Amino acid sequence: AVVTLVCSFGYANEWGLNTEERVGINQKIAETGIKLITSHSVSAFDEDKATISCVFSGFEKILETDLFMPVTIRTPNSNLYHALKNLEGNDSRLVNKSIYRIGDCEAPGLIANCIYSGHKLAREIDSSEEDGVYLNRERVSI
C-alpha cells in the first residue's frame, strides 16, 4: 500500500520545530517510503478521491485513495455541547446535570491535552472556584 501524507507547510510536523523533532520525523518519513506532499491542504474528500489544493496557488489535484484519515483538525467541535445546552431547560433527563466543555470541544490539541482536560475536570468538579485547586508539582533543587 502507498501511504501519502499531505501537509500545508513545506515539511511534516510544523510543531516539531519547537521540540527539535522536525528533522528526525521528516527523515523517518522519507526512510519509510511515505509519499510526502507539502504546501497543500485537503479541500474535499469523496469516497475514493481526495482533492488537494496548493496553499499558494489554489491549484487542485485529485488523489485516488482507498482510505482517508485526517490526522488533526484545528477547529473546535462543540456541536454536541451546544445541542445539550439548548436542551438544558427543556429536557427532564438533564435536570441536576452539569454540562462542561473539555478537550477538543474547547480547544483542539494533542491527545495528551484532551486527557489532561478530562483529568483536570475530574479533579476539580466538586470544588468551588474559591478552593483554588492547583497542580501539585515536586520541585527538584540541585
Keywords:
142 residues; alpha+beta; FAD/NAD(P)-binding domain; 2 domains; 3-stranded antiparallel β-sheet; two-stranded parallel sheet; 4 helices; 26% helix; flat
List the helices and strands and how they pair.
Layout (H helix, E strand, L loop, with lengths): L3 E3 L9 H4 L2 H10 L3 E3 L2 E7 L2 E6 L5 E5 L14 H9 L23 H14 L18
Parallel strand pairs: 1-2
Antiparallel strand pairs: 3-4, 4-5
Largest sheet: 3 strands, antiparallel
Name of the level-1 CATH class of the largest domain: Alpha Beta
In helices, the fraction of residues equals 25-40%
Q: Could you spell the SSE succession in H and E letters?
A: EHHEEEEHH
Largest beta sheet: what is the strand line-up? 3-4-5
The helix tally amounts to: 4
Low-confidence stretches: none
The fold-level CATH name of the largest domain is FAD/NAD(P)-binding domain
Question: What percentage of the residues does DSSP assign to strands (E)?
Answer: 15-25%
C-alpha Rg, in Å? 21 Å
Q: Return the CATH architecture of the largest domain.
A: 3-Layer(bba) Sandwich
Structural class: alpha+beta
What's the overall average pLDDT, rounded? 84
What's the CATH H-level homologous superfamily of the largest domain? Answer: FAD/NAD(P)-binding domain
Q: Compute the separation of the termini in Å.
A: 52 Å
Total individual domains: 2
- Give the overall form: flat
